[in-house]
Design a protein that fits this description.
Distance between the termini: 42 Å
Strand content: 15-25%
Structural class: alpha+beta
Shape: globular
Number of strands: 5
Length: 143
């Protein structure tokens, strides 16, 4: 679905529709990752679309991908949300929060009872506002 308007309505809601499993070309997410300063991880696509539970995306009026995120896991009780990415020109417009909430809605609809996410501490308020409860955990990285 194409976007009618990129702005927020007067009541603060989005004029756009965030689509679950939006058709996305393999190069679009790596390009969006690079626009926000992340590694493109070109090798992850299209395999990620085949392996994650579901993803969500949003396009602008030029049909450019401006928002992306996904939930992965076994599809049982627990899922993991990752790669919440908003095009730099479209940040701070409520799109990120709407994207996360759409993914959480789909998680609930899919039967997931727990969704975890890791984030930089500077994003704590954002994720708290989206309904996440900060908690302790651990992270292992391959050396």
């Amino acid at each position: 679905m194409r976007i009618r308007d990129e702005s927020l309505r007067r009541d603060g809601t989005l004029n756009q529709e965030i689509i679950i499993n939006l058709p996305i070309e393999s190069q679009e997410v790596p390009k969006l990752r690079e626009l926000v300063g992340w590694e493109g991880r070109h090798f992850d696509y299209p395999t990620l679309f085949e392996r994650c539970n579901f993803w969500a995306g949003l396009r602008d009026e030029k049909n450019e991908l401006i928002a992306f995120g996904y939930v992965a896991g076994t599809g049982l009780q627990h899922g993991y949300m990752e790669d919440i990415i908003i095009h730099p020109e479209h940040q701070r417009k409520g799109i990120g929060k709407a994207l996360v909430k759409r993914l959480l809605h789909e998680a609930e609809h899919s039967g997931l009872e727990i969704v975890t996410v890791t984030y930089d501490t500077k994003h704590k308020t954002f994720y708290s506002d989206c309904g996440f409860v900060p908690c302790s955990g651990g992270l292992w990285w391959k050396k």
